[in-house]
Amino acid sequence: MAQILRRLAVLAAIVAAWPALAEDRVMTLASTTSTEQSGLFGYLLPIFT
């Protein structure tokens, strides 16, 4: 019984991690105007583009 539960747990972990393996590399970033005006976007955006 313990072996079946262990296998089910591994299967559940694989299924849960599957979306993380997607190839789509889009990131949506939301912020307040103060964060945008501080220059944080100017620093971060070139790293991710």
Q: Would you write up a description of this structure?
A:
With 49 residues, this protein is an all-alpha fold. It has a domain of 26 residues. It contains three helices and no strands. The longest helix has 16 residues. The model has no long low-confidence stretch (mean pLDDT 83).
Strand content: under 5%
Please, how many helices?
Answer: 3
List SSEs in N-to-C order: HHH
E-strand count: 0
Average pLDDT over all residues: 83
Largest sheet: none
How helical, in percent, are the residues? 55-70%
Provide the gyration radius in Å. 20 Å
Distance between the termini: 49 Å
Low-confidence stretches: none
What would you call the quaternary organization? single chain
Give the helix/strand class: mainly alpha
What is the 3D shape?
Answer: elongated
Summarize it:
It contains three helices and no strands. It is an all-alpha fold.
Please give a handful of descriptors for the protein shown.
49 residues; mainly alpha; 3 helices; elongated
Task: List the SSEs and their pairings.
Blueprint: H1 2-17, H2 33-37, H3 40-48
